[in-house]
Write a structure and sequence with these properties.
By secondary structure, the protein is an alpha/beta fold. It contains eleven helices and 19 strands. Strands 6-5-4-1-15-16 form a six-stranded mixed sheet. Pfam families: Metallophos, SbcD_C.
Length: 411
């Protein structure tokens, strides 16, 4: 049996405020062409169909269009809800959709009831384990614990119990949305940590022939039988080096797994560039990235004026700007925030802050005058309100120890 394993569509998500709806539509068209060209027997979608619990209408419309097209192909589709989805909303109409070959598994109580597929070698039982939030499902699943491992083990106990009641020739596939030990995360997955432990051992999936995983956005092989498809599109610059793809999984008569990757369309490459403004504007090696989505990290000791406008002339698709000045070699040993303030006036602290965030360019006379006027106005307001006298350095003080080492601005 040939299966197409995909996950983490995140329909409705944008990339640094750039809409990805057209790119997601292109991906779904690519998926449908792959189903036809590769003669796929079933499609597996391992969660995070939408990017949020209440998706925008355009994303809902795109999902509806994809379901209709899959149904017209006559290829069964098994989907589970992920941690970004609203399980109840995604599962609306699931009973009716079953008749069209679209099997939505969003209720944890149904994790031991498979979608039965068949080929010339017999049945393939597909079990859908939607994202299991431990605090919500541990009791109903009878889990021996309150963490992710405990609830997944309880769900898999139900899977193995059902499988044991079927003919020995039945092959088993499970879809799950979880963070499995050995997987590599990126910045664009929502944290699912509960009690400090979010990941689970791959051994929880023992007893099935293939585990189609979702949640992590990089395509990964945990073992020959346990894999992440990854997201079809990059959703953060931490995914710049990812090769976005889907898995074609072939299950033979004995349940042995053959796997190969099918690349997904890339709407626009990602580039993370670092250097001074002058380097980024004129370095010939950066010509290859002029049509990419760009994250630029400026290392100038003094923050340049209007860098985004200048960079946009060379990189029209720049979407993120970070300031990270190179060390000057003159930094002093770290001391606490309170110690750095001791004995300094409010005016001196404010002026020091300006010099800190601009790294190398202290407040000029006009700025010092404005800071003084603002501080005087604050003191006058306190006096009018009957506030007690403050010691020097107390205006704007957070009370926390330590301070940021650099200022960071993003577009």
């Amino acid at each position: 049996m040939r299966l197409l394993h995909t996950s983490d569509w995140h329909l409705g998500r944008s990339f640094h405020r750039v809409s990805l709806l057209d790119a997601q539509r292109d991906f779904l068209g690519h998926l449908l062409r792959t189903v036809e060209e590769e003669q796929v027997d079933a499609v597996l979608v391992a969660g995070d169909v939408y990017d949020r619990a209440v998706p925008p209408l355009a994303a809902v419309s795109l999902f509806d269009e994809a379901l209709h097209r899959l149904a017209r192909l006559g290829v069964p589709t098994v989907m589970i809800s992920g941690n970004h989805d609203s399980a109840r909303r995604l599962g609306v109409g699931s009973g009716l959709m079953e008749h069209a070959g679209v099997h939505l598994r969003t209720d944890p109580e149904g994790c031991g009831t498979p979608v039965l597929l068949s080929d010339a070698h017999g049945d393939v039982a597909c079990y859908g384990l939607p994202y299991l939030e431990p605090g919500l499902v541990s009791a109903s699943l009878g889990a021996e614990g309150s963490g992710h491992t405990a609830v997944l083990r309880a769900a898999m106990d139900r899977v193995r119990a059902d499988l044991a009641s079927r003919p020995a020739t039945t092959r088993a596939v499970v879809l799950a949305h979880a963070f499995v030990h050995g997987g590599e995360s990126s910045d664009s997955e929502r944290d699912i940590t509960v009690g400090g432990v979010a990941s689970v051992p791959a051994s929880v999936f023992d007893g099935v022939h293939y585990a189609a995983l979702g949640h992590l956005h990089g395509c990964q092989t945990i073992s020959e039988r346990v894999r992440y498809s990854g997201s079809p599109l990059a959703y953060s610059f931490s995914e710049a080096a990812h090769r976005k793809s889907m898995w074609i999984i072939d299950l033979d008569a004995e349940g042995e797994v053959g796997a190969r990757r099918i690349d997904c369309p890339v709407p626009r490459p990602l580039a993370r560039l670092r250097g001074s403004l002058e380097e980024l504007l004129h370095e010939p090696a950066h010509a290859a990235h002029e049509e990419a989505w760009v994250e630029a990290t400026l290392t100038d000791a003094t923050r340049p004026h209007g860098p985004m406008a200048l960079l946009s002339e060379r990189f029209p698709h720049i979407v993120s700007l970070v300031f990270d000045p190179e060390p000057t070699g003159e930094s002093e040993p770290e001391v606490s925030y309170a110690r750095r303030l001791k004995g300094r006036s409010d005016q001196e602290i404010a002026e020091d802050f300006v010099g800190h965030v601009r790294t190398g360019r202290a407040a000029d006379s006009g700025e010092r005058r404005m800071l003084g006027e603002a501080l005087e106005a604050a003191r006058a307001e306190d006096m009018a309100d009957g506030a007690t006298d403050r010691a020097p350095g107390e205006y704007g003080r957070s009370g926390a120890e330590g301070s940021p080492e650099r200022a960071e601005v993003r577009r």
